[in-house]
Write a structure and sequence with these properties.
With 395 residues, the chain is of the alpha/beta class. The protein has 18 helices and 14 strands. InterPro entries: CoA-transferase_III_domain, CoA-Trfase_fam_III, CoA-Trfase_III_dom_1_sf.
Length: 395
Amino acid sequence: MLEGIKVLNFTHYLQGPSCAQTLADLGADVVKVESVKGAYERGWSGCNAYKNGVSVFFMLANRNERDLSIDLKSPEAKEIIYDLVRNHGYDVIIENFRPGVMDHLGLGYETMKEINPAVIYCSCTGYGSSGPYLKKPGQDLLIQSMSGLTALCSRSDHVPEPMALSAVDQHGATLAALGVMAAIIDRIRTGNGHRVEGSLLGSALDLQLEPLSYYLNGGQLSDRCDTGLSTRYHQAPYGTYETKDKYLTLSLIPMDKLEKAFTPGCFDGWDSKRQMDERVAFDKIICDEMKKHTNDEWAEIFESLDIWYMPVNEYDEMLLDPQVQYMNQFLKCSHPVAGEVTLVGHANRYDGKMPPLRIMPPELGQNTAEILEECGLDAEQIADMEKRGIIHICK
């Protein structure tokens, strides 16, 4: 769908790579530009998850891309980047260095705009490109904390807890990719380039669109509580509840259905207004009631009343879920070094299909020579640059 769009990807960690991978999945020619030593994510992986020495963290967000390993501090390297932007159609740039780093390298927006006025330049930052937090580390966990997310998700009997995944990174990546796509569409119409600025702080605030809007407009959030209630603004029940044998999650159940599902009389004196306004006290009743039956017993009751519920699945259970299996969103592939690898595929379907895996996550410098040849360098010039340590070529 994005065939003909050429992207230079100067990113590392997760937010930037995931943004670039989204465009790559959709068919853009994305070149990951790495140092001769390689990006951070090649040498780190959560759970120490490596397949034959290849980082799963690297593989999960760098598919469908080519790789150019080059020393950006070298004047010759800069000229190659300039040539790609000026003469070879690589007029979409994505970077997620700290603000100022790309300018220091001679690869900032103003420089690239001068080389190619139609350039689309996307910066993925922690806090934006200016402001008092300019030099602070922009990282998912830290921004969950300062943005209010950590306090929003917590219960009163625990220390404040962040979400147990990099939701701010992933959402920020999606928003950045959306911004790039909007800029591409406008450039098609007007010929104008754009600077797109995505930030993790902006992503974290956007994730809180609903509760933050209530708060800003006089809505009263509940105190953090120790019941099953998982938010501070929904009516109870809304969260995960212990049953006689396991756990179930309940969501948005009206009073008339609750009265049919639970012990007769347990909600005497309650109405839908109190269900919202006194949701913590109401939720304590739900917690007591849920312990009276097993998961299977509750499932039978809830199915008969069309009540919204789901089991709390661990990953092994989730993978056996019939809808998960039907969606078939996992890419099983064979990596030349890592061997058999399973990746989480693109989330959307287009005309009923998931975008295919065209290129495996590349080895460091895997495409350096071919990209330089596209720039007009001959074998002797490429060999000389490799000898002097300006480039790395995968052998």
